[in-house]
Amino acid sequence: MARPRKPLLSTDRIVETARALVDAEGLAAVSTRRLAAELGVSGPSLYNHFRTKDEILEAVADSVSAQVDLSMFEDGRDWRTALHDWAVSYRNALRDHPNIVPVLARGPGRRPAALRLADAAYGAMVEAGWPPAQATSIGALMRYFIMGSALGSFAGGFVDDASAYDPADYPHLGQAHLLAEQQEKIDERAFEAGLTALLDGLALQYEQVRQQV
Amino acid sequence: MARPRKPLLSTDRIVETARALVDAEGLAAVSTRRLAAELGVSGPSLYNHFRTKDEILEAVADSVSAQVDLSMFEDGRDWRTALHDWAVSYRNALRDHPNIVPVLARGPGRRPAALRLADAAYGAMVEAGWPPAQATSIGALMRYFIMGSALGSFAGGFVDDASAYDPADYPHLGQAHLLAEQQEKIDERAFEAGLTALLDGLALQYEQVRQQV
DNA sequence: GTCTATACTCCGATAGAC
DNA sequence: GTCTATCGGAGTATAGAC
């Protein structure tokens, strides 16, 4: 076969297959040859639809950004509730596709869904009365926290092996090997605790800012 | 030359050279051949000192963790001040070696300096009266925030090109192309704002926890 | 026990035939 | 728009020199 009657590939099909592969086996498993094999074509065929492998990964990343709900910024919720719900939705999207997070963490760049996300959050904060500079900071600091929470599981970063943490070296890590087991619950709780603290702290700053006007 | 009188390599020299290479040209620039060339040696020689390339990167990461000051947990500062100073020191270390952050973000694993860091922070929170579960959450959420802030610059994630952000698509991103320019200042300010909010919020939780005792 | 030489497999990407 | 052939370079295993 040289040129089929109907195209075998489409950008959508490539992105979907790539996302499934990333989810199942990680970023490192995505080689052009491997991805092409999953699609039933030869490696270089991908280059008819994307200029580089990185473009494919960017498209996968953006398809994950597109899953974040933004409706909370439109229905008159107060800024704090909206920010909370947005953060949870954002985090859930990343948690469902943790392997692509390193690509997302590079920033929005030119990815449309990521830009819509930044635009909506920033716009809502300005709308709620935050001065532009503070609204920028809020966008940044929420991103730090959410990306950080998705990038590396805290609990999963410890080894599931008691002998790895000698009490003589690390007097307080006696239970650390248990963290790996309860990973999900611990990360979930830490995320909620951090988000609550962050929003409580921001509410304090908001009062000060509003009194100055 | 087959076997030199004096060893040309040492683990320290490899780690130092690798760190310099990572800092100067990024993670992707570190191949065993390239690193060996910098050391004046052939590629496979590295495998006499490290079992894999990944072990070298882990060692580089840990040498950065070792730069984080931990003295604030020992001199009787209150938990909030100590946590603040620790976060700043932590972030500064990462900011000085941003290219290695993806490796650090995988978690402490078996890296001694990273474990000392987790141990010190967790121990200090328990010492200050936080219940163990909350102390774990604090360790996690601080890590989220600090790693997130170091991993991808928020401001640097935007493209330095006004035409990339069409107002019709992103009504609130009119100035976004300017962010890349002022990267450092914006990231610095967002980090401080977030850290203050986080600590304010935690102080609120602390009061509640202490009242229950 | 530390190095060099060599080789194997896989990678991203390009050129050109159909 | 797909194929095959091919390139340079990656990680790393192994054999052997000294």
Written description of the protein model:
The structure is a homodimer of 213-residue chains. Chain A is an all-alpha fold. The first copy, chain A, folds into two domains: 11-63, Homeodomain-like (Arc Repressor Mutant, subunit A), CATH 1.10.10.60; 69-211, Orthogonal Bundle (Tetracycline Repressor, domain 2). Chain A is built from nine helices and no strands. In chain A, helix 3 packs parallel to helix 6, helix 4 packs parallel to helix 7 (132-151) and helix 4 (79-96) packs antiparallel against helix 9 (183-211). The radius of gyration of chain A is 21 Å and the shape is flat. The first copy, chain A, starts with 10 loop residues before the first helix and ends with a helix. The mean pLDDT of chain A is 95. Chains A and B meet through helix 6, helix 7 and helix 9 of A and helix 6, helix 7 and helix 9 of B. Chain A binds a DNA duplex (18 and 18 nucleotides) through residues 1-4, 7-9, 31-33, 41-45, 47-49, 52-53.
- CATH homologous superfamily (4th level) name of the largest domain in chain A: Tetracycline Repressor, domain 2
Q: Given the C-alpha coordinates, what overall shape of chain A results?
A: flat
Low-confidence stretches of chain A: none
Class of the largest domain in chain A in CATH? Mainly Alpha
Q: Indicate the proportion of strand residues of chain A.
A: under 5%
Number of helices of chain A: 9
What is the name of the CATH architecture of the largest domain in chain A? Orthogonal Bundle
Helical fraction of chain A equals 55-70%
- Write the element-wise H/E pattern of chain A from the N-terminal end onward: HHHHHHHHH
Structural class of chain A: mainly alpha
Organism (chains A, B): Actinospica acidiphila
Domain HTH tetR-type (chains A, B): 8-68
Keywords (chains A, B): DNA-binding, Repressor, Transcription, Transcription regulation
Protein name (chains A, B): TetR/AcrR family transcriptional regulator
